[in-house]
Amino acid sequence: MSAVLQKLKRFKLRALHNQKKFGVAGRNCEEVLRKGCLHLQLPVPGSTLCLYEDGTEVTGDYFWSVPDDSELVLLTAGQTWQGYVSDISRFLSVFQEPHAELIQAARQLLSDERAPLRQKLLADLLGTVSENIAAETRAEDAPWFEGLESRFRNKSGYLRYSCESRIRSYLREQGGDPADRRPSAGQAVEGTGARGALGVTSGASLVVTEAREEYLRVVGAMCQKLQAARYNSSYFDRGAKAGRRLCTPEGWFSCQGPFDVDDCASRHSINPYSNRESRVLFSTWNLDHVGLIRREGLLSTT
Hints:
It holds the Pfam family DFF40. Heterodimer of DFFA and DFFB. Interacts with H1-1. One of its GO terms (biological process) is apoptotic DNA fragmentation. It is found in: Cytoplasm; Nucleus. The protein has about 300 residues and is an alpha+beta fold. The chain has 3 domains: about 10-85, Ubiquitin-like (UB roll) (Roll), CATH 3.10.20.10; about 95-130, no CATH class; about 140-175 and about 220-300, no CATH class. Helices cover about 40% and strands about 10% of the residues. It contains 10 helices and 6 strands. Strand 1 (about 10-15) and strand 2 (about 20-25) form a beta hairpin. It is elongated and about 95 Å long. Residues about 180-200 and about 290-300 have low confidence and may be disordered.
């Protein structure tokens, strides 16, 4: 055992949030820690060593279980390290508000990269950090409005229209959209009010006779409530109050999973305010894999 204790163990050491590593050797944990603090000009009291890969603290007998040339992180009092997770978290925080220099560096990496997987990761990253999420008006983000009518002057206004159109289409499937109630010239209207709606009577024809009266009453009441609520168009408006929108103040929508589970295991998310591609993709998006907007827009009004 004494021979083992005399053997020097080699490590690669670095300080927290410092990518530069240096070699250090010692016969015990205290010696490695002392040499590391001296090299990095850090105080020994309160400092500790941990594994880079998972943040496990290196102390006592565990020192001899760590393979030679393992990478260690030297922490001073109050600092923590959770392994790779800490690096990922730091990476994400850097790209939360990316600078032009950072984007340029990523583009340079992409131009030199040949591995397909790394190319895709870099391309996706660049696409994300280059999004103009904060912009709201046509003047601020003209590409976002490409293909839209000139009457849409801001993103929130268009997405309110988009939400209303979706809910009206769902209602139309039930035969209840007031827009379908206008008869053509010379065509008689059956009954009055909601019961006289051509669309509603068309939908009612699929309901058994005994339930038809109640069906027409429910659909008529639903139409009135949706009209009063402007078809819940605020659901897609990031500027609406928290209780009236389905997204964050920045415009992020998160999938809530199928109706029979509590959450979406895949953590799908999308921001239609970010760029034209996301806006177009969002038009095909269901927030629960099936039809959250349909349930929220129609059932919540009853």
